[in-house]
Amino acid sequence: MTVHRVDPLADPRWADLVGRHPRASVFHTPAWLRALQRAYGYEPVVFTTSAPGTALTNGLVCCDVRSWLTGHRLVSLPFSDHCEPLVEDAGQFAAICDELEAHRGRSGWRRIELRIRSGQKPPEAFAAGEPFWFHSLDLRPAEDVLFRSLHKDSIQRKIRRAKREQLRCEEGRGEDLLHAFYGLLLLTRRRHQLPPQPFAWFAQLAASMGEAMTVRVARAGDRPVAAMVTLLHRDVLVYKYGASDAAAHPLGGVPLLFWKAIEDARARGCVTLDLGRTEPSNTGLATFKERLGAERSVGQYWRLPARPAAHRAWRGRAFTAARRALDLAPLGVRAAAGKLLYRHVG
Fold it and tell me: Given 116, 148, 238, 284, which residue has the most CB atoms within 10 angstroms?
């Protein structure tokens, strides 16, 4: 099979394929790709066996990531929990992967990364990377059934507490909500000893996604106590980012926002709430998602070439050292570090 390159932001055939393919997600959409391009400078490209001038029947979307810090890479896709190959059969996927392998040296890609949630496997040249857990909640049962499936103590009880405390929920994508979310994100990333994503990323996401993106903020009086960002694609609502003030956790703002998201998703006709990726070491987050009634599955990332064990060890030591340094930094320094570093780690 001959493999061709397509610009997914200029060729309307890509949007058409994403609109009809059963494995397409919000991460395949031109809106998500445009936000990545505008915020981080990544160049999206689709590899397909469909000939120019014909309908697009398959494609693997990637971003060309150029970084002086982490090298020149081809990633499918940066900052995306998963990105399925939109192919009709294993032969198409193998042909595309073989083409990527053949052109890796000429294109200057230091490595190729594929982030696959389903069981699709690339050719043997690709090595398995980190496995991840993915959680999704089936929204088709009746609302009262969904509520009863929530953990009685840590979820149901806290939702009732939030209502007694008269927490109010706002939603939209205006600048005031973005800033409320971002203020809580700074606190959350400090707790996790991580730099925050740059504010420009969320602003570009709102501008590119339009009504497909929603910021939800829970307030106690005028004080933001919890917030989340969700993305909508067809009948799937994706929980992408969350943030909260730990001092206000007893008020139940986080469970309340998730329940509001479930109610809103059902009202929109959604059948699935995609709760995203969880590292297997983060058992606390996995437990929380499962207490919402979500089911766990396992996804696999793939790399070409394989990451040497020595590199993994060095990366782990460098990451630990950076986290310790950030633990002592004020919020402004953390925000500046995120603005500097995030485009290199997609």
Answer: 238
